[in-house]
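anyone seen this seq b4? input:
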Amino acid sequence: MNTDPTTLIVETTADEECPVDFLGDSADIVYFISFAHSERYGADHPLAKASSILKRKLGIKLGPLLNYADARTENAAEEEHLERIWQDPTAIQDCARAVADALESSTELRDLVEAFPELPDRLRELAEMAAWAIEQGSQMRLTYVI
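predicted toks r here
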């Protein structure tokens, strides 16, 4: 039973609901993208360090995963921001796959994300959701609740 309220919410503009779902807790992706975002401000968490390696050493552009927002809004500006973060699912698919591949192929990265052993699996599932959205000709939006 999942008692952790932190969840990544994946939405599409498709006419039907995506048949692909996360097979485990999506909180690991929320933590990863949060620390990847804060890495530029000097965060020293292992996930921030991993994102630095992904960006700086491996040249993976994390932007598609960092285009996210809190699903709960409190004002019109936050509502408008939610509307602006819809994006091409191809970018999400490519980024999620590249990050998952890198996390699995590098000992240094595996060591940094060892507390989040299912992160590559969740990223691959996100890539599968994006692939479905591509087939539907739809856009995707990543939001979270904590």
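The chain has a mean pLDDT of 94. Residues 8-145 form one domain. kinda curious what u guys think
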